[in-house]
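Forum: Protein Structure Q&A
Topic: Joint prediction for protein chains with partners

I've read a bunch of threads here and the consensus seems to be that you should model interacting components together rather than docking separate models afterwards. I'd like to see that in practice. Below is the full input, 922 residues plus whatever partners are listed. Could one of the regulars post the assembled result?
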Amino acid sequence: MKRWVSWLVLLVAVLGVFYGFVSPYKGAFDLDGFGQLPVLQGGRIKPIDTVARNALLFMNGKQNVRIHQEKILPDVWLLRSMVSPNMTDTYPVFRIDHPEVLALIGHKLEDGHAYTFKEILPYVSMIEQQAELARKVESNQRNAYQRALLLTYQRLMTYFQLKNSLQVEGWHSFDRELMSFQSTLYAGKPLMVAHADPNALSAQDKFVLDGLLVFYKKYQHLAQASFFSSIPPQQVGDEWQSMGSGLLGMFKSNVLSPAIISYAEILTAYQDQDSGRFNRSVATYSEYLVKKFPEVMFRMKVETYFNRVAPFYQSLVLYLVVLLLVLVSWLKWPDVLGKTAFRLLLLAFLIHTVGLGLRMYLQGRPPVTNLYSSAVFVGWVAIVIGILLERIHKKGIGTMVSAIIGFLTLIIAHHLSIQGDTLEMMQAVLDSNFWLSTHVVTINMGYGGTFLMGILAHIYIFKSMLSPSFDEAERKSLKSMVFGTACFAIFFSLVGTILGGIWADQSWGRFWGWDPKENGALLIVLWLAIILHARLAGLVKEKGLMIMAVFANIVTAFSWFGVNMLGVGLHSYGFMDQAFFWLMLFCFVELFVMWLGFAPQFFKRK
Amino acid sequence: MSLLIRRIFKLLSSLELTIICLVLVMMLIFSATLDQVHLGLYGMQKKYFEGWLVWWPLRSGRLIPVFPSGLFLSGVLLLNLVCAHTVRFRFQVCKMGIWLVHLGLIVLLVGAGLTHFLSTESQMPITVSGHAVYSEDANEMELAIIKQGKETDQIWSIPKARLVAGKILTDSLLPFPIMVPENFEQQAKSWKVKDYELVMRPRRYYNDYSVTLQSFTHKQYMGTTIPKEFSSRVHIQDFKTGEVRDAVISMNQPLRFRGKTFYQASFAQGDTVSILQVVENPSWIFPYVASIMMALGLLYQFAWHLLRYLKRRPAA
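Posted by a regular:
Agreed with the consensus. Here's the joint model:
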């Protein structure tokens, strides 16, 4: 019976993972195919699906819109926003949390979180003016109101640009637009060349030329407004173009890009709710692209699956389940549940690893390229150690710390992902795969080791406070785990810090530049050195070691996130606001845990 | 007497001193990092790391020392380490890693000290198709005395640190003795005395070669403002050896030439001026050696611990 439970839990988990592969799009339209079409945005070629998801995430903090009982998925939302903006203008997608910004648009904080474009529309010009003022203040001196206002403005801009990315918002038929443009162009082009003198034109010719001018202006607007470039290069050496520039290009050349024809068909078919035509055009265009850019299209497919399966979200949930299982196993069925938890941990870790690997493939970079990926990677490293510890000590502690750290780091990553595309391009300074894969990876391994050590110390403190069965053997094994991870952490922190110094020496001629992030890394090394010296010299006993290990968490959190909030230095690539509150809260909690470590035991063992 | 010396030695070599110093260093770095927001990188370094003490301005304007500074603490740590190894440590195979780490640390600290005293950093802004024969350190001023000749100018320069108000500078190398006026800093930036021109200007480092900027490239990722690449194509002409060469300097790809290293630092005036960072650091090798020693030492020590632990475990 007990063994059955173990396998059943695993089976359910595996099925749950596979369920993630099932397309969420039901209905006649091939929205999966549409979502896989490649566009260029933020310097990177990505599927439309990613653009839609990130835009929604950026505006609303969620990847889909819920309106009444209906859940609107990202690609549907994107298509609707271009084809029938009247509809999407009434979707609540603009998240505004700052009371003063809300007051600007006549709302109070308790009214809700997300607002519709229609609600905000009357205040847009005012927001624009205020944003203009806020932009004049230097970015690290803006106050919370100015930052919130600018964010709102950027969200509005994103929405406006998205609506005007493939066509001018609300065109009833891109098809007919294209036809009338082509016929006007056909009639007008000879006139443009032949007659330099406008007085020599007949009334009919003037009419045609005026018509052309209207098209020209319209497409110029489209070219300026679009959020992404949708037209792939036709020849080697060409660049990606936005729909507007593509249409403008027809003034010069007569060749109509297959992308323009296809998008005109796709959008018109969607407008007419003609699923047959929609699917056919998506298929034809995809085939053309697969022939021309096989590698890109494969990547698009992988990325859309990556988006859909959301491996880090899945492992986040699994880590939580593992944590609960371990906790229950300490009360009941320790063997079976402990084993189940460990197996489930391995499954979660496998998904985590695959996700990390896919990101590396998609970006063509080592695992850590920004704060988001560092959270994912730090968790991953800590879990590797956790799994090893579990193999050695077999008390469920390794499983538990792995689950805790996996859950926490992925939660952090989830919140960091709201800022936009997590596969963003690297700045020129950071554009070195060699240093990214040596310095950045080792530093993050140091973070992972330090956090793992800190969490092990938590378990020691809580167990000695609460658990009557916390015996000498368990104390000893926890102590050796803490000591072992401290060694691991100081090695990687030190090597990582040094490699950072060498990178700096190679790039700026300065081994040590007192950059905040460098200082943070050095603080970790110093604190770990203090712990090891204090321990080896016998200046602190077991309890002191644990309390010091908890403090290491504060040091690491400062170095990992705190210094980025200062907004100075070369490493301020991930400037965060609300995160400051959480960092402070974390520090207070850790200080409290340290105090608990000092406090006498609540349950005296008899 | 010898008892006192022994006591002092014991204190200097003690582990408690090490830990106290390390804690103080942590506090120092932490406050320096926070203060960097207000002081900037250069001011922060000056205040927290380069002197012996950190000074705090009172409301009356007087400065009082509040904390030992970077130089002081690293000096004490160095002393502590050397004393500990002469007094306390015995060389054992099982502690070879620790020896190596500590030795590496000594090399690192000595190297940092040498870098502090010997290295120079300056900037060399060059306009496209223009050239430069010197670089400037904007953080340090100098008094330059220039005598224009027909073909070449003669220049004497005195670092600002040597100019003490009210003092008279006499040196056989100078064309004439100079009396430094009171509050000369508030006065004009340049003076004319007979054939000589006197200027206060950023300190210059002259080279006996010229660097010509042929072109400057600044690329961004398409459709974004994220910088993708900065690079300067330069042409170097050595007046001494007659050597002529071209080089491309870009982010992460500096040029090393005659003991100086040129880095792509910045750009100005709508991409028509490239600013190179010029560094001369004769002690650059120290941190590299130290790093290798420390990394190897840690690896040795922890591998030793781990092996012992794993060997002992099945028996337990």
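The mean pLDDT of chain B is 84.
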